[in-house]
Amino acid sequence: MKAGTVVTLRVAREVPFGFFLTDDKEDVLLHHSEVTEPITVDQQLEVFLYQDHEGRLSATLTIPYVQIGQYDWVEVVEVKKNLGAFVNIGLKKDILVSMDDLPALFSLWPTIGDKLYCSLKVDNKDRLYGKLGTEEVMRALAVPAEPEIFNRNIKGTVYRLLLVGSFIMTEEGYLGFIHESERKEEPRLGQEVEGRIIDVKEDGTINVSLLPRTHEQIDEDADKIYEYLQGRGGSMPYWDKSLPEDIKKRFNMSKGSFKKALGKLMKEHKVVQEDGWTHIKEK
User: Fold this and answer.
1) Which residues form a coiled coil (predicted)?
2) pLDDT per residue over 11-60, tens digit each?
């Protein structure tokens, strides 16, 4: 009998703390806390085998979707820096995805609430661990995208990280790639991201950008500048002729982006410029 598998066993006997089940070669305990229905001796039960908190092989009547060779999305419920990420597969005991299978940078590890696509595996000591879906597994799961979805907004979960970018599985089942130039920061493994489709490739995969569309970015930059003005009492020592490095340091945007956003605010009659300063226009 191996952890991570579903087996049918006979109820051999009842003990004060549960039932011993057998395949006539080995016995395994079904603890009273795992019993969800009346049980009688010699009854045949379908159970899932796992290790309890003390490392002993145990049985449960709860059959998880995630098993050895069987994948599903599971939620991260705990993270320990020296161990890895624990995921909930529907059992009373959470399953560890080892730090060896997670990104080298801790900042890119999944956090509580993130989702991982996992099955189960056992190590050489028969201990049960979570196993992340490989690229081959994810491609087998994916559905091809059609050209007409170009430029649509999408949501997806990051399942693989590389230096050049991040791979996601979208809610629709499309495989997507986010190049490092199409994001402001690198997302975590297991993080849900929102973006837009910037290319539908011949193989049915998509390229995704997490950056706003041009008009959305101008709106965002304009809001940022206006909020800064409000925080300074309505005036700031920056205008469209300010030095690019000064603009970058204060607003973290290029001079071109700054001028577009400032132009939007002036066109809306929200601000005026004078002698190197920008002021909120009095109503």
Assistant:
1) none
2) 999 898 889 999 988 899 999 888 888 888 999 999 999 887 777 888 99
Question: From CA 147, how far away is CA 159, in angstroms rounded?
Answer: 23
Average pLDDT, the chain: 91
**Length of the chain counted residue by residue:** 283
| Domain ranges for the chain | 6-60, 72-133, 142-209, 214-280
Angle between helices 244-251 and 255-267 (to 10 degrees): 80
User: What mean pLDDT comes out for the span 199-227?
Assistant: 88
Tokens 């002036």 belong to which residue? Answer: 266
Q: Are 29 and 59 in contact (CB under 8 A)?
A: yes
| E runs forming strands in the chain | 6-15, 18-22, 27-31, 44-51, 57-60, 72-80, 84-88, 95-98, 115-122, 128-132, 153-162, 165-170, 175-179, 192-200, 206-209, 235-236, 271-274, 277-280
Handedness of CA 178, 180, 182, 188 (dihedral sign): positive
Pairing of strands 95-98, 84-88: antiparallel
Whether this model's pTM surpasses 0.85: no
